[in-house]
Amino acid sequence: EPEVTQTPSHQVTQMGQEVILRCVPISNHLYFYWYRQILGQKVEFLVSFYNNEISEKSEIFDDQFSVERPDGSNFTLKIRSTKLEDSAMYFCASSQQGFEAFFGQGTRLTVV
Amino acid sequence: AQSVTQLDSQVPVFEEAPVELRCNYSSSVSVYLFWYVQYPNQGLQLLLKYLSGSTLVKGINGFEAEFNKSQTSFHLRKPSVHISDTAEYFCAVRPIFGNEKLTFGTGTRLTIIP
Lengths: 112, 114
Prior knowledge:
The complex is a heterodimer of chains A (112) and B (114). With 112 residues, chain A is mostly beta strands. Chain A is built from no helices and eleven strands.
C-alpha cells in the first residue's frame, strides 16, 4: 500500500540552526501539507501546498518557515533559525483530491 | 473557523468491553469528519471518515462512528476492545468547500486494561 515517508525520523539541532525536514508524498497525490504536534498537545496545521504554491498557511507558519517541492517527488519543510519552541513532531501529509489526508510517520525535531 | 472538542482526555476500558470516544465540533459551514489513530511512537492513521451519505460509517479494526448533525457530534465506538487498541485517537474536521486543512481535537488516550 502506498504511504507517505518522512526522513529523518528524529532530528536534534542547536538553537539558531537551519533544519530541513523531508517528505515523499504518495505519488499520484496533488495536495501536500505539514502539521506539527508539540508534545502533549493537539495536532496543528502549518501549511498546505497545491499546484506548486502555498494554498494556505497558519499563523504559526511565519517567515522562519518555508516549503518546497524541488523535484516533483519530495516535499520539504525548512526552518531557517530554529527556536526551542519549534521542538515538536512534524507530520507531512498528502491527499489526492483534498478529501482525506494520509500522514507520514513524522519527524521528531528536538531543538537544544 | 472550525473547532473540535474531545472532552475525554483519557479513557480506560477493560478488554472486550465496549467503548465510546466522544467528539463534538463547531463550524459555520458544512464539514467532513474524520477519526485518526496514533499508536505509540507512530504517525497518524485514518480510522474512518464521513463525507456524505449514511451517517453511520464503518472503519478499520472494527470501529464505527455516527454523524449527528443536529448535535454536531461524531462519536467513535467499538463493541469489544482489544489490547492492541491502546492508542491516542483524534477527531478532525475540514470544510467541504474551500481550504482543505484539518482541525484536530486534543485527542483521547484509550488505555485497555487486561
